[in-house]
Amino acid sequence: IGAFTESLDHLDLLFFAGIPVWYICMASSMPYVRIDAVAPFLKEDQSSQRLVRPGGFIVDCSDTLPPHKIIYDGLANKPDRYRKMAAYLDSLINDPAML
């Protein structure tokens, strides 16, 4: 999950919020950038919410049944996010039903 932007203001905001962000600009405006390889695009399977990589690897983006539990809803740069994630993982590890 992340964002693409052409705005330096949005780039700054998203980067410091901890959200992966890619800056889109003309190659001519970045003369010192070296591109070693170009990654292949994903192909979207129209029959379902699946993304198919050129090598055949499938990323399933469809909703799960039952839905995943929402552990945290809020900004990414808040420490409470990590406390709640740790507590949830701890509950999975220490749940006797999972053993």
Automatic annotation (TrEMBL):
Keywords: Membrane, Transmembrane, Transmembrane helix. The chain crosses the membrane at residues 13-33. This is Uncharacterized protein. It comes from Collybiopsis luxurians FD-317 M1. The lineage of its organism: Eukaryota, Fungi, Dikarya, Basidiomycota, Agaricomycotina.
